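sorry to bug you again but im stuck and you know this stuff better than me. what follows is a protein written twice so to speak, once as letters and once as structure tokens for the fold. mainly i need to know what kind of three dimensional shape the backbone takes. anything you notice is useful, everything is just below:
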Amino acid sequence: MRAWLRYSLLLSCSVGCAGTDDDVAAAMESGLRTGHLALVAALVADESLIHAHETPDLELRHGPVACCPCKTRQGDPAGEFTLRLDYHDQGCTPDSGLLPTTLAGFAVTFCDPERVVTRLDGGELGARAEPMAGSLRGSVDNAATVDVGGTFDIGERRFRVDLALQNQGEIGIDGVVTVDGVRVALDGLTLPWDRIAAPCPTPVAGTITVADPEDDVVIDLADPGLGLVTVARGRRLSEDVSWCAFRSDLL
């Protein structure tokens, strides 16, 4: 893939472009992989808060797995309450449709009329059961609008998010995710629900900008579309690149 991407760069570089072909291709590839991680973090954050005001389930942890997550609530639903989100010991794919992989274990959400706070310390993500830790807080408007911020870990990776999410006909994502200290801006991402599934979540519009000390890497999800993207770094522009070829190993 690196050799193919380098060939694309050789075709698309105008006079005066800085950096060797290999260096620019490596920066673009790193940007693509970091962009995928930022998108995964956004979807995990959405999943963590979206259930805050849903009706609790009758099924409990040791009963049949008929809900994912199963929700149990303690407290006043019109005031302060605690919601336990149970994804079961064996893991399950969330009913929300926000993730194409499993969550296992549990998360605990604390709610009052002004805010929602979710602790992720009991959860695991994906087939590799990557442990999750940290907390997210924000607000939820009938699950349609989620504003969320916070810091959490998935395995050895650390994420900090500050996001505005829309969950209606399509998922809209705007804001910033920091991936292991690298700032990633998600601008106007549109992710249809049917494009979350394997091989990877694939937005159909918007840009992902990955900060770089020399030149930022900008991924255009809409150009040309159909799972193909273009990547720009400074005056370098790639040809069409498969978005899912650089997908995260977290899913």
